[in-house]
Design brief:
This protein is an alpha+beta fold. The chain has helices spanning 41-44, 55-65, and strands at residues 10-16, 21-26, 30-33. It has a 3-stranded mixed sheet, with no helix packed on it. The protein is elongated and about 65 Å long.
């Protein structure tokens, strides 16, 4: 095996956009993330929609225009 081909594995500070900071190890000394375990809906148990380009509102408008969720009901 070749010697000295791997990057240095150093202590790293991870900073989230929610303000949470924690220490880990990485090849980079600082990491910036948008979502961490402190604010991710899966870990917090809170439902939160991450809407990209208004897709949720567009779907809700289409659903209202179609008459709601009346599927499976016979009249």
């Amino acid at each position: 095996m070749k010697a000295d081909i791997h990057p240095d594995y150093v202590h790293a500070t991870v900073r989230c956009s929610c303000g949470n900071e924690f220490e880990t190890r990485s090849t980079k000394p600082e990491l910036h993330v948008e979502i961490c375990s402190n604010c991710h809906p899966f870990y917090t148990g809170k439902q939160k929609l991450v809407d990209t380009g208004g897709r949720v509102e567009r779907f809700q408008r289409r659903l209202e225009k179609a008459g709601g969720a009346s599927r499976g009901q016979s009249e």
